[in-house]
C-alpha cells in the first residue's frame, strides 16, 4: 500500500526519493498515466468509488500531485521542458538544457486528461505549448531532429526519423488529436507525415535523414520504430501500414525477434544492437492493424511472438531479455514494458471480445456533479506505456451548459461538413477507418434501449473515429440521421 497519510513525506517523496534525478519521460510521466488509467478503470474493476468520481478520487489526486511536481520543468523561454526535474526542488541549476524530441512532445494525453478531469487547464496548456514549440522549430523541409536545446531552441542532434528520441512525439500528436478531437494536432501530424514519406521512406522502410538537407544519415530500422504501422492505421492509412508491417515482420522471421537495430541495405543486425528486450512495438502495431483489417498474417506474428517468448526467453523467474538474436543468448534482466505492454498487446490481439475493443454498442452512464455522463463506450486511447484512457471521461467533469454548447457546435460543424466537404481531417477517413473505427460488420443496431434510438452514421462525426461523441449525443437526446 502507498503511504497516503504519512505525516512527513507524501507518497511520491517516498516512492521517488531514491530516484530523484531520473528523466521525466521515463519515470515520472508513466506514473501520472498509470494513476489516471487506474482511476478511470477503478469502478469497472469493482472498486467502490467516491461520490464525484470520475471527477474526483484518491488516484486522481495522486496523479495531479505527481504532475504538479513536473510543471517546473516547463518554465523555459521556449515552453519546451527540461528532461529532468527534482521532485522536491524543481529544476536543478546545473541541469542540461538538451532534451530529446519525444521528451518534449509526450505529455498531451496524460496532461489533457488531467486538465479535463480536474478542471485545471495548466497541464493541457503546458503540454500544448511544448508541442507547438517543436512544430515551430521544424526545419524548412518539415522535419524535426532528435535533441533540442530548450533554452535556445537550437537543434543539437539533427537526425530526423520516426524512432528513438522522436517516436512518442508523433504518437502523441495522433493520439492527442483523437482523444481531444483536435484538428490542429492532427494537421501538424499530417504535415510531418508528408515530409517523413517524402524524405525518409524508401520501399516502405523508414530511414534516418539529416533534418535540414534530407540526406540519408543512417539506413537502419530500429525495433522502436515498429509502432509506426499501428499509428498509420489510426489515421486510416491501412495499406501503407500493412506494407511496412510486412517489411518488419520479415526481420522478425529472420531472427525470431526484432533486433534493436537492423541495417536495411545489408539485411543484418548492427554491431552491439543485436538484442531483443521483448519490446512491444511490433505486436502493438499488429493489434491495431488486426482491428482494422482482420488479416490473419497479423495473428501469425502474434503466434510467432508467443513462441519466441516461450521457447527462447522463458526462464525460472520470468522472461529474459534476448541479449543476442544471432545465437539467442539471454541477458539477466526483464524489462518492465514486457508485462506492461508486450503481454497486454498480445492478449488484446487474441481477445476480440475484450472490453477495450468495444465499438460503442454498449456503454455505462454515470451521474457526476455535472450531470449524466457516458463512460466505457470504447475508443480507448493507450498512452505510450499502454495504459488505456477512456476518451469519454474527458467530457464528464465540466459544466453541463458548456457541454451543450460544445455539442451544438459539433452538430453545426457536422451539417456544414456534409454540405461542403471541406474538412482538414477528411484525408484520414478517405482510406478507410483505423482501429478505433466502427466495425463495418457491426451494422447499426437498435436494440440498445431507449437511450440509443439513434442511427450510427456510416461516417464518423469527426474523421478521427470516436464513439464517445455519438454515444454522448444519444444521451443528450440528439438524434443523428445519416441516410447517405
Ligand atoms: C522555436 O520555438 C520557439 C518557441 O515557440 C520560438 O520562439 C522560436 O521562434 C522558434 N524558432 C524558429 C527558428 O522558428
Ligand atoms: C519532396 O521532396 C522534394 C525534394 O526532394 C521537394 O522539392 C518537395 O517540395 C518535397 N515535397 C514535400 C511535400 O515535402
Main attributes of the structure:
alpha-1,2-Mannosidase; hydrolase; glycoprotein; three-stranded antiparallel sheet; disordered N terminus; alpha+beta; mannosyl-oligosaccharide 1,2-alpha-mannosidase activity; Glycosyltransferase; 16 helices; EDEM1/2/3
Q: Determine Rg (CA atoms, Å).
A: 22 Å
- Adjacency order of strands in the biggest sheet: 1-2-3
CATH class of the largest domain: Mainly Alpha
Which residue ranges are poorly predicted, with pLDDT under 50 across at least 5 consecutive positions?
1-8, 16-22, 421-484
The CATH topology of the largest domain is given as Glycosyltransferase
The pLDDT mean sits at: 83
Cofactor: Ca(2+)
Protein name: alpha-1,2-Mannosidase
GO biological process, one term: positive regulation of retrograde protein transport, ER to cytosol
Main location: endoplasmic reticulum
Describe the structure.
It is a single chain. By secondary structure, the protein is α+β, with helices and mostly antiparallel strands. It folds into two domains: 237 residues, Glycosyltransferase; 133 residues, no CATH class. The chain contains 16 helices and 19 strands. The strands form eight sheets. It has a three-stranded antiparallel β-sheet with strand order 1-2-3. A three-stranded antiparallel β-sheet has the order 4-7-8, with no helix packed on it. Helix 5 packs antiparallel against helix 6. The radius of gyration is 22 Å and the shape is globular. One 2-acetamido-2-deoxy-beta-D-glucopyranose binds next to helix 6. One of its GO terms (biological process) is carbohydrate metabolic process. Keywords: Calcium, Endoplasmic reticulum, Glycoprotein, Glycosidase, Hydrolase, Membrane, Metal-binding, Transmembrane, Transmembrane helix, Unfolded protein response. InterPro entries: 6hp_glycosidase-like_sf, EDEM1/2/3, Glyco_hydro_47, Seven-hairpin_glycosidases. It is found in: Endoplasmic reticulum. This is alpha-1,2-Mannosidase.
Amino acid at each position: 500500500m502507498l503511504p497516503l497519510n504519512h505525516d512527513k513525506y507524501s507518497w511520491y517523496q517516498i516512492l521517488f526519493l531514491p530516484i530523484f534525478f531520473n528523466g521525466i519521460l521515463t519515470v515520472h510521466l508513466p506514473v501520472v498515466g498509470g494513476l489516471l488509467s487506474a482511476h478511470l478503470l477503478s469502478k469497472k474493476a469493482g472498486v467502490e468509488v467516491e461520490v464525484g468520481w470520475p471527477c474526483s478520487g484518491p488516484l486522481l489526486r495522486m496523479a495531479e500531485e505527481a504532475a504538479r511536481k513536473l510543471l517546473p520543468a516547463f518554465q523555459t523561454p521556449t515552453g519546451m521542458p527540461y528532461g529532468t526535474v527534482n521532485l522536491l526542488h524543481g529544476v536543478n541549476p546545473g541541469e542540461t538544457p538538451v532534451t530529446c524530441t519525444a521528451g518534449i512532445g509526450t505529455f498531451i494525453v496524460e496532461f489533457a486528461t488531467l486538465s479535463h478531469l480536474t478542471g485545471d487547464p495548466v497541464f493541457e496548456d503546458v503540454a500544448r505549448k511544448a508541442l507547438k514549440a517543436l512544430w515551430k522549430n521544424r526545419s524548412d523541409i518539415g522535419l524535426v531532429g532528435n535533441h533540442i536545446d530548450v533554452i535556445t531552441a537550437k537543434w543539437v542532434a539533427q537526425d530526423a526519423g520516426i524512432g528513438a528520441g522522436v517516436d512518442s512525439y508523433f504518437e502523441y500528436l495522433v493520439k492527442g488529436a483523437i482523444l481531444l478531437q483536435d484538428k490542429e494536432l492532427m494537421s501538424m501530424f499530417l504535415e510531418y507525415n508528408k515530409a517523413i514519406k517524402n524524405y525518409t521512406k524508401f520501399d516502405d522502410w523508414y530511414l534516418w535523414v539529416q533534418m535540414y538537407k534530407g540526406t540519408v544519415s543512417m539506413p537502419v530500422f530500429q525495433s522502436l520504430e515498429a509502432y509506426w504501422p499501428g499509428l498509420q492505421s489510426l489515421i486510416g492509412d491501412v495499406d501503407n501500414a500493412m506494407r511496412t508491417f510486412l517489411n518488419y515482420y520479415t526481420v522478425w522471421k529472420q531472427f525470431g525477434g526484432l533486433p534493436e537495430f537492423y541495417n536495411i541495405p545489408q539485411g543484418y543486425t548492427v554491431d552491439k544492437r543485436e538484442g531483443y528486450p521483448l519490446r512491444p512495438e511490433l505486436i502493438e502495431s499488429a493489434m491495431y492493424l488486426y482491428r482494422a483489417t482482420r488479416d490473419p498474417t497479423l495473428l501469425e506474428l502474434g503466434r510467432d511472438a508467443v513462441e519466441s517468448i516461450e521457447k527462447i526467453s522463458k526462464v525460472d523467474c520470468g522472461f529474459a531479455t534476448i541479449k543476442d538474436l544471432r545465437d539467442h543468448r539471454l541477458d539477466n534482466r526483464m524489462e518492465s514494458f514486457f508485462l506492461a505492454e508486450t503481454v497486454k498487446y498480445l492478449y488484446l490481439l487474441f481477445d476480440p471480445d475484450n472490453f477495450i475493443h468495444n465499438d460503442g454498442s454498449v456503454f455505462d452512464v454515470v451521474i457526476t456533479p455535472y450531470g449524466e455522463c457516458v463512460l466505457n463506450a470504447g475508443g480507448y486511447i493507450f498512452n505510450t506505456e499502454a495504459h488505456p484512457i477512456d476518451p469519454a471521461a474527458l467530457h464528464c467533469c465540466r459544466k453541463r451548459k458548456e457541454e451543450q454548447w460544445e455539442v451544438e457546435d459539433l452538430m453545426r460543424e457536422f451539417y456544414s461538413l456534409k454540405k461542403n466537404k471541406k474538412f482538414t481531417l477528411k484525408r484520414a477517413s478517405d482510406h478507410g477507418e483505423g482501429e478505433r473505427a466502427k466495425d463495418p460488420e457491426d451494422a447499426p443496431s437498435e436494440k440498445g434501449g431507449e437511450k440509443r434510438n439513434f442511427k450510427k452514421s456510416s461516417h464518423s462525426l469527426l474523421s478521427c473515429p470516436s464513439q464517445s461523441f455519438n454515444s454522448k449525443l444519444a444521451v443528450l437526446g440528439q438524434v443523428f440521421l445519416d441516410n447517405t
